[in-house]
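#struct-help
A.M.: can someone run this one for me? Single chain, 206 residues.
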Amino acid sequence: MKIKNTEFVIFDVETTGLSAQDGDRIIEIAAMKIKNGRVVDKFYSLVNPQRALPAQATRVNNITEEMIAPAPTAQEILPQMVSFISGACVAGHNVRFDLGFLCYELALMGRRLNDGTPAVDTLKMAKDLLPYLSNYKLSYLARSLGVAVSKTHRAMADVELTVQVLMRMIEMAADQNLDDVSKFLAQFSVDKPSFKLVSSAQPSFF
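D.P.: on it. C-alpha cells below:
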C-alpha cells in the first residue's frame, strides 16, 4: 500500500504553556482528516482548561479567557477527538509536543490512544528530506516548499499549513522510494508519549 492512499489525521493544539506534566493544559485543538490526498473532514474546538490562562499564552495565540470560558472541557471534547482519529495515522509538526498534551489529558481520564496508532512527524520528515534548511519552524518550512503563510499560532491555521507541507513532502519521499507505507513509517514515525493512567478504573483503550 502506498502512503499517499493512507488515511491521516493532522492535528495541532494550543496550550497554556509548554508542559502538561507541570500543569499546562490544552485550550484549542484542531484536526483535518486526509484520504487519498484530499481533506474529507475537520474537527475543531476551543477547550476550557479549568485553570488560569497566562498572559504569555494569550500573547502567542491571541486566545483569551473570555473565549475559552464557555468552551467544553478536555474531558468533554477529547473523546470526540479520539473518535475522529479512529484508525488513522496521526501527524503533526513536532507532533510529540501535541501528542504529549493529548496523551496526558487522556491519561487523566484513565484513557489512552490505541497502541497501534502510528504518528508521523513533519519536522522529522523535513530534517531527513531537506537537510540543507537553516530553520525548521513550520512557517519557514512551508515557505521553503512554496506554501503561502498567512496566519500561525492558531490550531486550525497550523493544521492547514501542516497538511500542505505533509502532502509536498510525501511526494518528495516517493522520489526516494519511501512511498510504501512500511518504509515511510519506519523512516518518519515517532513513538507516542506514555503516561501512567490516573484513574483507578480499568484503562479505556481508544
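A.M.: thanks! The helical segments are 55-61, 65-68, 74-85, 95-108, 122-129, 138-144, 155-175, 181-188.
D.P.: also worth noting: The first strand starts at residue 8 and ends at 15.
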